[in-house]
Automatic annotation (TrEMBL):
<dbReference type="Pfam" id="PF00561">
    <property type="entry name" value="Abhydrolase_1"/>
</dbReference>
<dbReference type="GO" id="GO:0009086">
    <property type="term" value="P:methionine biosynthetic process"/>
</dbReference>
<keyword id="KW-0012">Acyltransferase</keyword>
<dbReference type="GO" id="GO:0004414">
    <property type="term" value="F:homoserine O-acetyltransferase activity"/>
</dbReference>
<feature type="domain" description="AB hydrolase-1">
    <location>
        <begin position="43"/>
        <end position="325"/>
    </location>
</feature>
<dbReference type="GO" id="GO:0005737">
    <property type="term" value="C:cytoplasm"/>
</dbReference>
<feature type="binding site">
    <location>
        <position position="204"/>
    </location>
    <ligand>
        <name>substrate</name>
    </ligand>
</feature>
<dbReference type="InterPro" id="IPR000073">
    <property type="entry name" value="AB_hydrolase_1"/>
</dbReference>
<comment type="function">
    <text>Transfers an acetyl group from acetyl-CoA to L-homoserine, forming acetyl-L-homoserine.</text>
</comment>
<dbReference type="InterPro" id="IPR029058">
    <property type="entry name" value="AB_hydrolase_fold"/>
</dbReference>
<dbReference type="GO" id="GO:0009092">
    <property type="term" value="P:homoserine metabolic process"/>
</dbReference>
<comment type="pathway">
    <text>Amino-acid biosynthesis; L-methionine biosynthesis via de novo pathway; O-acetyl-L-homoserine from L-homoserine: step 1/1.</text>
</comment>
<feature type="active site">
    <location>
        <position position="292"/>
    </location>
</feature>
<comment type="similarity">
    <text>Belongs to the AB hydrolase superfamily. MetX family.</text>
</comment>
<dbReference type="InterPro" id="IPR008220">
    <property type="entry name" value="HAT_MetX-like"/>
</dbReference>
<feature type="binding site">
    <location>
        <position position="322"/>
    </location>
    <ligand>
        <name>substrate</name>
    </ligand>
</feature>
<keyword id="KW-0808">Transferase</keyword>
Amino acid sequence: MPSEDAHVFRLPRALRLENGAVLPHVEVSYHTYGRLNATRDNVVWVCHALTANSDVLDWWPGLVGAGCHFDPQDWFIVCANVLGSCYGTTGPLTPDPATGKAPFQHFPLVTIRDMVAVHEALREHLALGRVHTLLGGSLGGQQAVEWAVQRPELFDNLVLLATSTRHSAWGIAFNEAQRLAIFADATYHEATPDGGAAGLRAARAVALLSYRSHSAYGQTQTDADDEKLDDFLASSYQRYQGDKLVARFDAYSYVALSRAMDTHHVGRGRGGVQAALGRIQARTLVLGITSDVLFPPSEQQLLARYIRGAMYAEMDSQYGHDGFLIETAQITHFLERFYVQTYVH
């Protein structure tokens, strides 16, 4: 396969969603980097977070890429854009082949398990019998742990960053606050590609309060001018980040993916969280972040408690939840320890 390339895969059959709805046509956008070795045991599968895409070299520099821990010279790296996104995989803005019309706000509810079903179909298409390492943070971690529960025999190693066994009431509340901002934008209900842009801008401002920390804002967004009465750095930062997301994402996908995140619960229908995590066979590293208020360390500690033999570590970071994207030097350090411990013992 090409050393670094984007691909599209069409599922060979309709996808029945967890809630009973059916998507008759599903396409998946994905990237691969590097090459399979002769023994086909160098596969690294990355699951991405809420507004990311399949080009993991673009959004996880320092961890994935030339000279990084996951270097395409050594690994065959796969990352697939999730169901419901706006980066090439079937989502709310994808036209129905039969009608030529996109569903917009009527796109059906998809769950983390539906996302994993699409990943599994792609894995089969790529004929990857085993995956050396499956990893993801946040929404990506939710996919990874769900997949490891569903197909425990496939994965040798599992790396979970800033994620959980189920999405918390706190996390659902944050997501609902963001969706309320989008729904309050009248253009969202007009079902156009740019619909809900003002609401999405406000939603992103809400989300940032859960992604970063009091300390991070204090250090980077405090005004030097003590006499200032308006247009504070923190205010302009929120507007700037909202504008950045609107330029690259859409409100309908944001609603679809935040709803999917809310459905995450590995224990649903499996006798509870402990029983579900007990199915995992992969050697597992769980990483928490000291300042994460969206997925606090207690949620990662719960994962490590019930996954047999899991290694748990915490990253000391001022960046809050976003630390899983930023603290690549710390992540690399813990990965090196994890792999040494795994293969020495």
